[in-house]
Amino acid sequence: MITAEVLTKRYGTTTAVDGLSFTARPGTVTGFLGPNGAGKSTTMRMVLGLERPTAGTVTVDGQRYADLRAPLRTVGAMLDARSVHPGRTAFRHLLALARTHGIPRSRVDEVIGLTGLEPVAGRRVRGFSLGMGQRLGIAAALLGDPATLVLDEPVNGLDPDGVLWVRRLVRDLADEGRTVFLSSHLMHELALCADRVVVIGRGRLLADASVQEILQRSASAGLVRVRTTGPDVLARALGRLGADVAPQPDGALHVRGVSVEEVGAAAGRAGVTVLELAAEEGSLEDAYLELTGGSVQYRAGGSR
Ligand SMILES: Nc1ncnc2c1ncn2[C@@H]1O[C@H](COP(=O)(O)OP(=O)(O)OP(=O)(O)O)[C@@H](O)[C@H]1O
């Protein structure tokens, strides 16, 4: 479990992370989302003890990273998949990591199997594709069989097979009861693999909710679109039900405050023919842009 409490990091006059509080729980894939420069990497680096918070705390299973007795066995991380010595083979890289952390060689073979690296395990990392590098980064994160995983943009640059593989892997890891905390700047990607999403902008928490809850916050959520042979008659009937009705240029009505079934029933009672009737799904990208729009504009204005 990862717990951040009023976590703050300042670099000179730049506040990269600003009073951030959230929890990533066991058995759950928690997505960490925000526009470029929102403070995701800085937060992850603080989780892993690579940066010291200016204020506030972040702990893994109740302990600061620096106080963990067996860090690699408690929390596995992939921050920058390219940070591997290019002249080493994948196997040697993993073996060196295992040896310095008292992890048996058999576990190296296991994670090579888990990440599908067998065919390239004997090759130097220098020649690795981005996808193979990501797999190697994930293999290293899994080496200590940790209960918590921190993955920075794990699907970045992967081909469709690789993306599917990462989605399944993180799901399986969470289903085994692990805490999985992974960042992305793509809402739709997280919608496919995360149970909850922590959204930040300018270092501040914008939302900590399930994907479904975020969808419901979208401006288009709860909107019913109806086109009939008698828009004026229907608009009056819906108004009497307490609905909020907005006529559209194409003759349709956009209706809020009543369900799609109620709109259909009202049309029937009013004796108008329904030509089109649909409940608009909230769009994830819209919800995300609505959430983060303010923080991006603020940055673009250079006003901080
Ligand atoms: N070492 C540093 N010194 C000064 N400023 C920094 C440092 N590290 C990060 N920042 C600044 O802190 C802010 C947050 O950066 P961070 O890399 O954490 O964002 P991010 O959400 O990970 O972005 P991206 O998606 O682009 O990686 C940015 O304004 C960045 O310029």
Structure description:
- It comes from Kineococcus radiotolerans (strain ATCC BAA-149 / DSM 14245 / SRS30216).
- This protein starts with a strand and ends with a helix.
- The C terminus is likely disordered.
- It contains eleven helices and 13 strands.
- The protein folds into two domains: 215 residues, P-loop containing nucleotide triphosphate hydrolases (Rossmann fold); 59 residues, Alpha-Beta Plaits (2-Layer Sandwich), CATH 3.30.70.
- It is an alpha/beta fold and 304 residues long.
- Bound molecules: adenosine-5'-triphosphate (ATP).
User: β content, as a range?
Assistant: 25-35%
Topology-level CATH name of the largest domain: Rossmann fold
For the largest sheet, list the strands in their spatial order: 5-6-7-3-8-9
Separate helix tally: 11
CATH superfamily of the largest domain: P-loop containing nucleotide triphosphate hydrolases
Largest sheet: 6 strands, mixed
Gap from first CA to last CA: 33 Å
Q: Which spans have pLDDT < 50 for at least 5 consecutive residues?
A: 297-304
Order of helices and strands: EEEHEHEHHHEHEHEEHEHEEHEH
| Domain module count | 2
Overall average residue pLDDT: 91
CATH class of the largest domain: Alpha Beta
**Which architecture name of the largest domain does CATH use?**
3-Layer(aba) Sandwich
Assign the structural class, choosing from mainly alpha, mainly beta, alpha/beta, alpha+beta, or little secondary structure.
alpha/beta
**Beta strand count:** 13
Q: Any ligands, ions or cofactors bound here, and which? A: adenosine-5'-triphosphate
The helicity comes to 25-40%
Calculate Rg over CA atoms. 24 Å
The geometry reads as: elongated
